[in-house]
Amino acid sequence: MRHWVIAHAVDDFYQGLIPAALPFFVLERGYSYVAASGLALAAALGSSLPQPLLGVLVDRRSVLWLAPAGLLVAGAGAGLAGLAPAYPVVWLLILISGIGIAAFHPAAGRDARRAAGDSTVAMSFFAAGGSVGFFLAPALATPLLSTLGVGATALFVPPAVLTAFVLWRHQLRRTSHTATAVTAAGRDRWGPFLLLTVVAVIRSMLFLGMNTFIALYWIGHLGSSGLMGGLALTAFLVGGVVGTISGGRIADRIGMRATIRLGGVVAVPALVALRLCEDPRPAVVLVALAGVAANIPFAVLVKLGQDYLPARPGTAAGVTLGIAVSAGGLFMPLLGRLADQHGPQAVLTTLCVVPAAAAALAFLLPPPGRAG
Fold first, then answer.
1. CA distance 233 to 215
2. pLDDT category, 372, cuts 50, 70, 90?
3. Which domain CATH number covers 98?
4. Domain-located, residue 91
5. pLDDT one-digit tens code per residue, 52-104
6. Residue 343 φ/ψ, nearest 5 degrees
7. How distant is the alpha carbon of residue 220 from its chain centre?
8. Which residue has the higher pLDDT, 50 or 72?
9. Would you say 94 and 39 are in contact if contact means Cβ atoms under 8 Å apart?
């Protein structure tokens, strides 16, 4: 399990590197909010659209090379994007990075579930690995990009190369033991899984909306520096790590469906308090609390999705891990236009109501007991 937690952290570092770099693309290259959100869209398209097909592939074939290869592509695309001189090339490299992320998640989710067994806590550590990667991206990238410029993203390519090599060696050692996906008794329940996917997409819109615009909100509305905006984004993602791990423990006590509802309900007042605070310093504490609330359902969505599709753990992981983190990026151009017209504060106001929709739909989710 340790290998998968570390690999997930490194892989999702590159997904977190994109929103961390967006303010510097805006400040250095004069990109508009719409152009910046277009880069978030490229990441979302790459990492979400291939997920269903890749999930089917993982459920039918061992493809032990897929996760290491995906991690390598994710790091190379995101790292080289800062060196690209023209917007279309930047967009394309970020799209390619997203495709690498899409390749990593189904295989990683399948094998992590095998290692975790039936423990929601264990899966929460795997999911938290991704949250740690998101957290480390602004924490490490913001000082470097502030000092060296947006081209410093290239300095983060070597960790992808090293981790992909180590993970590939780990997969080779497992070849004699693992050839197929984990399966469990019971039939697949596509209706509940599709409803769960809608909940995951709504949560993704909240998570990526905050990732994309929180630093811009600190800079454009609260009048802070780019460094302070990076600190706010880091605080949100640190809260996300705490929320992800806490969600697994809460689910083992009160159940997975109740935990998903809880996350949606507590996120609303946390976001409203953040939006009403006009002082950037105490707002950092509030954005961390919003990160906790927004991520309580994360690991639970992954495990519940695999319980709804017991014969297709790769597909379930690809959708809940991949789409749950990336599909919300499809809405980023709309939020970018809203920010261009009314400021990033309008985006935050809009995001205050998003978790209420996820909580309402979560009440319609059936129990995870498997029929058949």
1. 6
2. very low
3. 1.20.1250.20
4. yes
5. 788 778 888 878 888 899 999 999 999 999 999 899 999 999 999 999 998 88
6. 95, 160
7. 24
8. 72
9. yes
Q: Are 59 and 181 in contact (CB under 8 A)?
A: yes
Looking at the structure of the chain, the number of domains it has is 1
Q: Tell me the residue length of the chain.
A: 372
What tens digit of pLDDT does each residue of 258-290 get?
999 999 999 999 999 999 999 989 999 999 999
Work out the angle between the directed axes of helices 120-148 and 298-308 (0-180°, nearest 10).
130
**Residue 10 structural domain:** 2-362
Task: Provide long-range contacts, Cβ within 8 A and 24+ apart, for 147-153.
Answer: 149/24, 149/28, 149/82, 150/21, 150/24, 150/25, 150/28, 150/29, 150/82, 151/82, 151/83, 152/82, 153/17, 153/21, 153/78, 153/79, 153/80, 153/81, 153/82, 153/83
**Do the Cβ atoms of 53 and 108 come closer than 8 Å?**
no
